[in-house]
Design a protein that fits this description.
Length: 295
């Protein structure tokens, strides 16, 4: 499965105390990183969101951001009349004892500790439903986010498979060119050795010649590299069709393919084949660039 690390999702939900909006966005990253930004009233819920998000992806940088449009009735503070009355009685007594007769300024008294109760979720009936509200909001947002990642992944899949097909074509062409080139190279070597020995009045020892050919085969022959390269291409396709996104696995396979192409390039002396190897490296590089976007 091809799933992009890049995505965005957003959703809203209405609660008795206000309207919540949640955004989840992600970009490429080698490892898993999570950043959560919540209103200060919900800061204690950051570990909850971290835990939920950690299970949804394996690598990438994910940012979660929540905003709240509070209901005016919820944000309005509540005056504790008993405490306010106690403060006023105490202040009036102090004024009389000091011979002062000024009127109390209630706006200053209200600012004293305990007079104004600002709403807090631990004091609200809604505290018991926060888990359900956040769960529903996160599920909706994540669904939108995952949908975008899957869509982007399908585009990447088309691009990657196009380059993979080009690599496969180049591999087939290299193999088709290599087989006659190998045979002609060995025959040319036989001819040179025979001509040299005849000039010296000697004859070619076929047994010794075959021994030398066996040694040179390890240095010249690229049949094993071509076979492994074709095997890696098959494995690449199968890994991409797995039920889970396997960006890292695909990256490792590309590294192995690149190693085979480099070895092949270093062994072959034929100019046409070496240019084909260069084209194969370019195709692998294009594949690798796209894989960096996969989870």
């Amino acid at each position: 499965m091809y799933v992009s690390m890049t995505g965005f999702g957003r959703s809203q939900i209405q609660a008795p105390w206000g309207a919540l909006s949640l955004e989840v966005s992600s970009v490429n990253h080698r490892y898993q990183e999570i950043f959560v930004r919540l209103p200060r009233e919900f800061v204690s819920w950051e570990p909850w969101f971290h835990q939920k998000l950690r299970k949804l992806f394996r690598r990438g940088k994910v940012q979660l951001r929540m905003e709240v449009l509070w209901s005016p009735t919820f944000k309005m503070g509540r005056i504790n009349k008993e405490i306010l009355s106690s403060y006023c009685d105490e202040l009036l007594q102090i004024q009389r004892s000091m011979g002062q007769a000024r009127e109390l300024e209630l706006e200053k008294v209200v600012s004293l500790p305990g007079v104004l109760d600002l709403p807090r979720f631990e004091d609200s009936e809604d505290a018991e439903t926060l888990d359900k509200i956040f769960e529903k909001l996160l599920d909706t947002t994540v669904a939108s986010w995952q949908e975008m990642r899957a869509l982007e992944g399908s585009h990447l899949r088309e691009e990657i498979l196009t380059h993979l097909a080009e690599l496969e074509r180049l591999t087939t062409e290299i193999e088709a060119r290599w087989l006659p080139t190998r045979d002609s190279a060995f025959e040319a070597l036989r001819t040179r050795i025979s001509d040299t020995l005849e000039g010296l009045g000697e004859r070619l020892d076929e047994g010794r010649f075959l021994q030398e050919i066996a040694i040179l085969t390890d240095k010249w022959d690229v049949s094993e590299e071509l076979a492994r390269l074709k095997s890696h291409i098959i494995k690449f396709r199968a890994t991409g069709d797995d039920s889970e996104s396997a960006g890292r696995k695909l990256d490792f396979i590309v590294q192995e393919m690149n190693r085979e192409v480099n070895t092949l390039d270093s062994k072959v002396a034929d100019a046409d084949i070496r240019w084909l190897a260069v084209d194969a490296k370019a195709a692998l590089e294009r594949i690798r660039e796209q894989i960096q976007n996969l989870e």
